[in-house]
Structures are given as structure tokens and as C-alpha cells.
Amino acid sequence: MPKNIVCFGELLLRLGAPGHERLLQTPRLDVVVGGAEANVAVALAQLGHAAAMVSVVPDNALGVATVGELRRHGVDVAAVHTGAGRQGLYFLATGAMHRASEVLYDRAQSAFALASASGYDWPRLLAGADLLHLSGVTPALGAETAAAAIAAARVARTAGVQVSFDGNYRAKLWAAWDSDPPVVLRQLFAEADIAFADHRDIELVLGQTTSGDSREQRIEAAARQAFGAFPHLQRIVTTLRTQHSVDHHELGAMMVTRDGGVHRTTDYTLTAIVDRIGTGDAFAAGVLHGLSSAMTDADALHFGLAAACLKHSEPGDFSRANQMEIEAVMAGTGFDVRR
């Protein structure tokens, strides 16, 4: 059954070096629209949900273009308003083989970052919503965006709207202002029903270390600590990535639930990766779709992983995969030409 899902975050323009070039190796940049929460909204809209975006953009051609791109992909942009400031940007140089990709943020003084937290009427914006999706990128942008994200999560909790939170820790963004990430993030985890996070995110928030002989054991131990600290939290979900080179990965996923469930997928082998950006957002959208469609936890996890795998094959920030394509990956039947 389609759900009404509200996503709150900044709309960005990505300026990428062509192919695998370094930034400005040649005088050209390819432009696409993105942003963590916008990526989730687009992916959910492709899967049939009523996805709405709450954001602020500048009143100029760049703001118009970003909003228009979300609208073109089926996202409700009625709650995207204009404000003083500039368009948020980031620059990408996609790596290859053993040269890592590089992201440069240019988001200071953006319209979204400058918008007052008091300017969002959350009871009205969340009226009729089934779920609110937030990420750790938004509070990393400054005190106002942090306050706005916390207010949104608290109003959602009071109104009975489920809260999805993706940790998405971005150290470069937090370092740009006088921030205290654990204090801020702890308030968002406290309102979440589902958190997309691994043991490192949880250790940061709780100020505790976890032990275990494997990555999976550390994630499970950290999840148990998080369930003890945050009574509303029901599920911790994360991808598990092993990188052999920039364009050859193994990708799996894991979910730990408050009732004691632990689910671990098998890994997919990803070679000749086209674009890694937005794959975590495609994963989150896929898991949320699965859970809202009454899939079992294990099936929802597998659906999210398949969605993430597909996103690796698609350039740009957005995942445009539909349910049939994702299920074909799950079934191992996705390679034949569709005629």
C-alpha cells in the first residue's frame, strides 16, 4: 500500500568531472540534481509512494532547476520554498582502480543552511504523513538546520508519524561550525523508529566502543546498546561493503531488530561500477518500501540491497529503478534484454 512520506533536507547541484577525470582536468563539469533526502524521495516516488520534499532553495534559475527536477520525477515540491542565500553545491571527481573518488562541498551560506528553524510549520507539513525521513547531513550544516531537524522529528513522534533516520555522518560538514555532533545526533536517534547506521555511527552517538570478532558482531553489539539508549528505536539497518578497488565491490546488508532478530543478506559482486553516489539512499528507500509493503524484515532488507546494487549501474544521484527491475535483481533474472 503506497505511503505518504515526507523528506526534509537540502537540494543540491552536483558538478562532476567527466568520466574519471580529475576536477577541471578539462574545462567542463557535468551537472545533476541530488541531495541525500531528495534521493530517497525520488526513489520512493518511483516505487509508487506519495513522496513530498520540504526544503528551501534560492529564488533564482538554479533553485528553479533543482525543484523542477524533483517535480519531473514525481516528488511533491509544494513545501519547497525560496529564501535568501545561494544554491548548495558539491563537486565530484570519480576515481578509478586505486584512485579514490573525491567530494568537495560548497554549501556555506546556502538558502537551506540560512533558513530559520522557526520557519517550518511542522504540524502542517506532517499532516497526513505516514513517515518522516531525515539524515545526518541536515543537522551537520549548522545550528538552524540542526534545530529544524530535531523539531521535525519531535513533532512527528508526537503526531504518531514514524521517523526514519539515516546517520550519514559527514565530518567535513560538522567541522565547519561550532558543533557537537554526538549531542545533536543523539536527539535524532531518540525519535527514530528505524535508523540506517553501523557500529561506528552508534559509537559516535553513545560515546561507547563495541567489541566483536567480526564486523557483523560489532554491529549487533552496537545495535543492542542503541536499543537500550533509545526506547522508540525498533530497527538498525546498514549496508556491508568490501572494496577491492574503486569500481569493484562486494555489497551486503544487515538488519538488527529490537525483538532479537538479526538478518544478514548474501553479498552481491559489483564490478564496472558506474556511479556509487546515492547508493545508500537507494538502499534506505528500498528498505522503507519493503517494510511499508508488508514484506518480512528479511525480504525488505534484500529488496533494499537489490535497489542499492541497481543504483551502482546508473549515473547521477537519483535511483530511477522500479519494483519490477529490483525484483529481477533479487531473482537473478535481470540480464535479459526486455523487448
UniProtKB/TrEMBL annotation:
It holds the Pfam family PfkB. InterPro entries: Carb_kinase_PfkB-like (IPR052700), PfkB_dom (IPR011611), Ribokinase-like (IPR029056). Residues 3-316 form the Carbohydrate kinase PfkB domain. GO terms for molecular function: kinase activity. It comes from the Bacteria. CDD domains: KdgK. Keywords: Kinase, Transferase. PANTHER family: 2-DEHYDRO-3-DEOXYGLUCONOKINASE_2-DEHYDRO-3-DEOXYGALACTONOKINASE (PTHR43320:SF2), SUGAR KINASE (PTHR43320). Belongs to the carbohydrate kinase PfkB family. This is 2-dehydro-3-deoxygluconokinase. It comes from Luteimonas cucumeris.
